[in-house]
M23 family metallopeptidase
Amino acid sequence: MSDSGPVAASAIRRHAARPHRTRGQHRASWAAELSPLLAGTQRRYTAVVGSAVAGASIVAMATGAGLPSEEREPGTSRAVADIAALASEANAPVTVADGEAPVGAAPIGTATADEVARTERTSPVTGQDAQIEWTPMLDDITITSLFGQRWGRNHNGVDFDAETGDPVYAAYPGTVTHAGWETGFGNLVIIDHGDGIETYYAHNSEVLVSEGDWVDAGSRIANAGNTGRSFGSHVHFEVHVNGEPVEPLSYLSEVGLDLR
């Protein structure tokens, strides 16, 4: 006993459990003070305190982020409930309203480096063939006769001035369906371009292709001449659509080749 009254039993137990303390004001040495930290009991206290601090930090973050923390199972601490809520949020699918970007995402209209790289890997560029253009059938174009009535009959093509031997070119890609003599036309080349379109090149002095040959636009197919029903060296050119001759200059103008 002391002058102040009987010593409480809890005080006795506390001093008994911690022998490095004395009942007076004397403090034990620092070595004695720190030694319990190495004991299993003290380490357990430290772990509990550390967990509490971590839980408090997570609760603070959840509160700052506005995450719900009121609902939790009975007997579960607030820290454990908040940790579970954070894990649930991390695994939940992200829903984005129209015109909005998810929290932490790059602004709308921008792409991160990873997104750009992923797009390059999965979205190969699809190339398109260049549009094929119609080309002149002679190096120099001089019109000498037009499509229409002539000498009591229809002149089904247009005539271009040319010297014998001048190169004659295919106006458009296609397959040669006729290469040789044809009454009235002399040496004639006919090219089928598909879709019912054919072109005729007549009065040639020499034919340089054969039936079945594929020719590209600008390929040399013949040399100009004065064969067949002709009154001078020139090239007679026709365009047929579905077997019927059409006015060549208007047709060529519509497909992008204006020779007038």
Observations:
- Residues 7-28, 44-49, 64-70, 119-130 have pLDDT under 50 and may be disordered.
- The chain has two domains: 9-91, 143-254.
- Helices lie at 9-17, 30-34, 40-64, 78-91, 113-122, 248-254.
- The CA atoms of residues 37 and 45 lie 9 Å apart.
